[in-house]
């Protein structure tokens, strides 16, 4: 469907049609007198406008059809009990409906329409807790697609308490893909959204991120560390909350696990907690953590690896902030 859209010669919304009309009226070269629009051009523009409106209506109808498929779940589970083949077919149909909705809602107008049609309420009330993991993660993915850069959708999802459910899925769902997609949706609700951040804090979201970084799921570890770094960078006022949880000690513990690319984000988060924050600096300097030697060894391992340059930069920056001014006097103030 995306390829079909890209191939259209007409715009995809009414604003684009208006621009098309302006462009069509100003396309002539040179200072020619203003003349009435030719019948041919009127016909072409009229057809283009009709085609665009038809395309928009078609997409709304497609969303309605998808929602009708998803609504079939309601009140029919007992009727299908024991009919395994039919259940599998119905699950495939619903998964396809979710995939179609996710594609359609890449268009922000469609995401807004889905909100109006009640599709997001359906996702939160029925599918985030669905027994089938394939439907849980697709519901979370659709929520993320609609919420991204859409304050109106974000506020609605927060009002219907989507965030606590998504945090719970991130924290404890048995299926790894569900956890990753749920965290993606959490990110879309809390980044650049003050109300989302407050809800995140009230549900101990930073602890969820910490446990995500300690999981065996590589994607979850990476996305948890990245979101932590992003939130600390955007909201330095949260340093006290995070440090008081023992986050410095936990992050250093994560760095001692077998090396992984996501350690770059962990080091970045530690840099945030140290910069202009005395308690974070004090925690990092605690001799019991052995952080200085860990950073020295890590920097040595990363030397000469172009793909690890940013991690090396964070490593060196953290070492300088924490330990450069602590060198013994007989070292002449030089970093060992």
TrEMBL record:
Pfam families the UniProt entry points to: Fes1 (PF08609)
UniProt organism field: Acanthochromis polyacanthus
UniProt name for this protein: Hsp70-binding protein 1
Segments forming domain Nucleotide exchange factor Fes1: 14-114
Compositional bias per record (Acidic residues), positions renumbered to this chain: 80-94
Keyword Protein transport appears in the UniProt entry: no
GO MF term set: adenyl-nucleotide exchange factor activity
Gene Ontology CC: endoplasmic reticulum
């Amino acid at each position: 469907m995306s390829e079909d859209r890209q191939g259209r010669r007409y715009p995809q919304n009414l604003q684009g049609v208006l621009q098309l009309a302006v462009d069509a009226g100003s396309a002539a070269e040179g200072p020619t007198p203003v003349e009435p629009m030719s019948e041919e051009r009127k016909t072409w523009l009229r057809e283009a406008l009709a085609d665009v409106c038809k395309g928009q209506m078609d997409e709304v109808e497609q969303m309605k059809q998808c929602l009708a498929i998803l609504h079939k779940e309601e009140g029919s589970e007992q009727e299908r009990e024991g009919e395994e083949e039919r259940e599998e077919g119905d699950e495939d149909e619903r998964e396809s409906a979710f995939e179609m909705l996710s594609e359609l809602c890449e268009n922000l107008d469609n995401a807004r329409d889905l909100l109006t049609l009640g599709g997001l309420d359906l996702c939160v009330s029925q599918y985030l807790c669905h027994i089938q993991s394939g439907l849980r993660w697709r519901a979370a993915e659709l929520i993320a697609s609609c919420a991204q850069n859409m304050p109106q959708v974000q506020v609605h999802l927060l009002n219907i308490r989507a965030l606590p459910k998504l945090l719970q899925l991130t924290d404890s769902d048995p299926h790894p893909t569900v956890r990753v997609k749920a965290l993606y949706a959490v990110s879309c609700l809390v980044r650049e959204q003050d109300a989302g951040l407050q809800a995140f804090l009230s549900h101990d979201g930073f602890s969820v991120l910490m446990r995500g970084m300690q999981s065996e799921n590589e994607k979850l570890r990476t996305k948890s560390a990245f979101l932590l770094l992003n939130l600390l960078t955007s909201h330095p006022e949260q340093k006290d909350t995070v440090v008081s949880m023992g986050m410095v000690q936990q992050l250093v513990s994560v760095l001692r696990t077998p090396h992984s690319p996501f350690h770059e984000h962990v080091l970045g988060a530690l840099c945030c907690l140290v910069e202009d924050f005395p308690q974070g600096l004090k925690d990092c300097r605690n001799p019991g953590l052995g952080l200085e030697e860990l950073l020295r060894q890590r920097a040595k391992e990363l030397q000469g690896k172009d793909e690890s340059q940013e991690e090396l930069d964070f490593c060196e920056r953290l070492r300088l902030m924490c330990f450069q001014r602590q060198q013994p006097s007989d070292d002449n103030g030089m970093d060992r």
